[in-house]
From TrEMBL:
It comes from the Eukaryota. Pfam families: L6_membrane. The keyword Transmembrane applies. Keywords: Membrane, Transmembrane, Transmembrane helix. The lineage of its organism: Eukaryota, Metazoa, Chordata, Craniata, Vertebrata. Its main location: membrane. It is found in: Membrane. The keyword Plastid does not apply. Belongs to the L6 tetraspanin family. GO terms for cellular component: membrane. The chain crosses the membrane at residues 12-33, 45-66, 86-107, 163-182. The gene is tm4sf4. It comes from Austrofundulus limnaeus. This is Transmembrane 4 L6 family member 4. It is a multi-pass membrane protein.
Length: 207
């Protein structure tokens, strides 16, 4: 497969992943599927890791990777593949942007998973049956002790909602980083070795 064709496969994979990341981040604004006040939303949601990092910043390299296939073996034989080699080199820069964007999303998701969601809990400093909104978990202690989830009174099912969506962002971010890293290697090979897959030799009268 030409390096441009392989890059297209990467782009086809990155696009739906970026869309899913955006959707996950949007859903996190509705903890447990409920509408809450803006200051009651987990603060890491406002860092827009899925929308900006694995979403918007990932769309640009995905579109670039998709466009690399369009020039495969077309017009590259007459100019010694200079245009194609430059395109493959430029794709490395976009791949680096993708790695940074996905890496940002991974870091935000990791911190959010470790900290846990913001939710309504009993106020331990009050003698009355008062409640407050805060992050009741520390250092990921709720991950291995599911009984701690009962500390969150509202919204219902906020812990599995938070954990599932941020875990999805974390996993998809890691996949995006891996795919962009693969394109860095693919782009280097395409720039150094060319990307015509022997089509020049197979064309009539081509040298």
């Amino acid at each position: 497969m030409c390096s441009g064709g392989f890059a297209k496969c990467l782009g086809i994979t990155l696009l739906p992943l970026s869309i899913l990341c955006v959707l996950c981040n949007i859903l996190l604004f509705f903890p447990g599927g409920h509408v809450v006040e803006s200051d009651q939303i987990t603060k890491q949601v406002w860092f827009f890791g899925g929308i900006l990092g694995s979403g918007v910043l990932m769309i640009f390299p995905a579109l670039v990777f998709l466009g690399l296939k369009n020039n495969d073996c077309c017009g590259c034989c007459g100019n010694e593949s200079c245009g194609r080699r430059f395109a493959m080199l430029s794709s490395i820069l976009f791949a680096a942007v993708g790695v940074l964007g996905a890496g940002y999303s991974v870091v935000v998701s990791g911190v959010a998973i470790n900290q846990g969601p913001s939710c309504e809990v009993h106020n331990s400093n009050s003698t009355a049956n008062a409640t407050e909104w805060r992050h009741p978990f520390e250092n990921g202690n709720y991950l291995s002790n599911k009984t701690l989830w009962d500390a969150c009174l509202q919204p219902k099912n906020v812990v599995p909602w938070h954990l599932t969506l941020f875990s999805m962002l974390l996993i998809m971010g890691l996949i995006q980083m891996a795919l962009c890293a693969v394109q860095v290697i693919n782009g280097l090979l395409g720039a150094l070795c060319g990307d015509c897959c022997g089509c020049c030799g197979g064309s009539d009268g081509a040298v």
